[in-house]
Design goal:
It is built from 14 helices and two strands, in the order ααααααααββαααααα. By secondary structure, it is mainly alpha-helical. It has one domain. The protein is elongated and about 75 Å long. The mean pLDDT is 86. This is ABC transporter.
Length: 311
């Protein structure tokens, strides 16, 4: 615990740490203010009933065009059915931004949270070598395993702190600017129109986003520990994050693609139903990610424990 406290204090002594938190807050607050401004302009577009009638008319025109794919036709038919259901049962739509819709928007910023955590993971070990403080750190009567574990746990604690900031700030801004909202989100499930469980979906999205968060952090921690280069760790991790989809698509014709962690790290594909590779399941993805996570940790610890710090 003492080691973690020391690492936590060292982390917050860096201006970059405060800058990352400030930047995260800004990218939540500023878009919120912009959305509030445009919400005020859209308030004069008429009642929700008029908007739904216009939506029905537009959807029917799209369906009558005969230029839609089967998938698009199903989508417009469902949206038309939902709009007709709203009018028939006096169920208002959520035309303006609400608390939950704003928090859903802010959940997309978890990519930024992952980036900031990757930066910390990449530098928390390599910076000790570049500044030469690693020699002083390892002269203490503490095992190298405990030293590295404290750095890893500090990294994840910082990431969880950023996730908490994301949730708390987006909830506060959303409630302050938009309120709870009066509309109801609807969806079609098994041919029946039901109220969408927006809060459950939002919570599930946060949980599933942990897949990419954990794997990216562990990979950056691995590269930073092995090569003692934070820039290499950050660059390589972000390169794989942004090109992972293309790599998976390129390898999709081969069975080996099912055994690459990039195929499974984005667990939100199970919420959206848009799978990167056909035939994968949640248990299989979690198994693959667990294997790679253990592999990353074994390499990180083995390298750090055996490394000659005088070199």
């Amino acid at each position: 615990m003492k080691l973690i406290q020391n690492e936590w204090m060292k982390l917050w002594h860096k201006k970059g740490t405060w800058a990352m938190v400030a930047m995260l807050i800004c990218v939540i607050v500023v878009p919120g203010a912009i959305m509030k401004y445009y919400d005020g302009k859209s308030a004069d577009e008429g009642s929700w009933q008029e908007v739904e009638q216009q939506t029905i008319q537009a959807n029917k025109e799209m369906l009558a065009s005969g230029e839609l794919t089967e998938e698009d036709s199903v989508y417009f038919e469902e949206q038309t059915a939902i709009s007709e259901y709203r009018l028939a049962n006096d169920v208002p739509s959520q035309r303006e931004t609400s608390l939950v819709s704003f928090m859903s928007f802010a959940s997309n910023l978890l990519t930024l949270v992952t980036l900031f955590t990757v930066i910390v993971a990449a530098s928390i070990v390599s910076s000790e070598f570049s500044t030469g403080t690693i020699k002083m750190l390892l002269t203490r009567p503490i095992s190298r395993m405990k030293v590295l574990t404290s750095k890893l746990l500090t990294t994840f604690l910082f990431g969880l702190f950023l996730v908490t900031v994301n949730i708390v700030v987006s909830a506060f801004v959303g409630l302050l600017l938009f309120g709870i909202g009066t509309g109801v989100e609807l969806e079609i499930v098994d041919g029946q129109i039901v109220e969408k469980a927006v809060w459950e979906d939002l919570a599930y999205y946060y949980v599933l986003s942990g897949g990419d968060f954990v794997m990216s952090t562990l990979f950056a921690f691995l590269v930073g520990s092995v090569f003692r280069s934070s820039s290499l760790a950050i660059g390589l991790t972000m390169f794989l994050s942004f090109t992972g989809g293309m790599i998976v698509m390129f390898l999709s014709r081969y069975d080996i693609v099912k055994y690459i962690w990039l195929t499974h790290s984005d667990l939100t594909q199970y919420l959206q139903g848009d799978f990167m590779v056909e035939g994968i399941t949640m248990p299989f993805s979690l198994t693959i990610l667990t294997i790679y996570a253990i592999l990353f940790l074994v390499i990180s610890y083995t390298t750090f424990i055996k490394r000659d710090v005088t070199a």
